[in-house]
Amino acid sequence: xxxxxxxxxxxxxxxxxxxxxxxxxxxxxxxxxxxxxxxxxxxxxxxxxxxxxxxxxxxxxxxxxxxxxxxxxxxxxxxxxxxxxxxxxxxxxxxxxxxxxxxxxxxxxxxxxxxxxxxxxxxxxxxxxxxxxxxxxxxxxxxxxxxxxxxxxxxxxxxxxxxxxxxxxxxxxxxxxxxxxxxxxxxxxxxxxxxxxxxxxxxxxxxxxxxxxxxxxxxxxxxxxxxxxxxxxxxxxxxxxxxxxxxxxxxxxxxxxxxxxxxxxxxxxxxxxxxxxxxxxx
Length: 282
Known about the structure:
2 domains, alpha/beta, 7-stranded mixed β-sheet
């Protein structure tokens, strides 16, 4: 436990999206290691579990390289009721088939109006294979139909909870390095990048066409050290693997078991070990 840790929400708030690497089950490991501050910066916001379940920050600066994710969050923050009204259509029984899923995916890739596209993105997230978000080299969303055993419903309560918390948030589509470099004294930075390969098997890194290679992992670690020298704490999640210890040399490293319920391959879901590297923790 860090001195003056940021408070964790008394009752956990669930993200309304399924997301690879989501942190809902690890909040008790991560949040106590974050110090209190005026603003929390998350350059890889993903499903938003940490954002939703921290208290004490006046503001949140949340970014992601996925433009559709950021667009969805902005729509929910600014037009929650309108969004729910449009999204309800896609959760009607007539959309519960492979054929309709493919139709929605095709329409989504045609880049229609913002409100409809945000609702389509939520539908694709819920009905796509294993909760993946993946694009081909042309930038087209290409996740196949997931044929869910339990038919997903519209997570209206979770959407409204997100919208309320999002009134203190700014959502930015951009590169993680720009968001991290924008940090100022009083900020706290939490990073949940695409993970390194585990020592025993490869990780999923296909959120976008470019991926996230070792050069970008090193860039993030170097930025964390720079910020720590300026008195700005940075915490980074990753797999507990040899490469991570080399990357995060000098950080305070904590390890804990994690269970993955969303993964690129059904067979890879299960128990793994993760770490949290905290720079500037003293």
